[in-house]
Write a structure and sequence with these properties.
With 87 residues, this protein is mostly helical. Helix content is 83%, strand content 0%. The chain has helices at 6-19, 23-38, 44-85. The protein is elongated and about 80 Å long.
């Protein structure tokens, strides 16, 4: 048995609920992940590189969405201008 500070237990229980795991399964999962990282898993630099690539990827998606929104806005303005001219 392991004694956990109450706040840590509540936090782990919340994450366990989010992930659909029992508290015990959440603790085991997190310990395994931590040990895997310690055993020659990815370095901090590698993990930061992966995060940076993810941010770049999602930044590209956001820019594409902004372009689509701007194109739609431009089309709406053009439509309104043509409608006003035909009056």
């Amino acid at each position: 048995m392991v004694r956990l500070p109450e706040e840590l237990r509540r936090n782990l229980a919340r994450w366990a609920d989010i992930h659909g795991r029992s508290l015990n399964a959440e603790i085991i999962y997190r310990l395994e992940q931590s040990l895997a990282d310690d055993k020659g898993g990815r370095s901090l630099s590698d993990r930061l590189d992966q995060i940076e690539k993810g941010l770049d990827f999602f930044g590209g998606i956001i820019k594409a969405q902004q372009k689509v929104a701007q194109d739609a806005l431009d089309a709406l303005k053009k439509f309104r201008a043509e409608k006003d001219e035909s009056k």
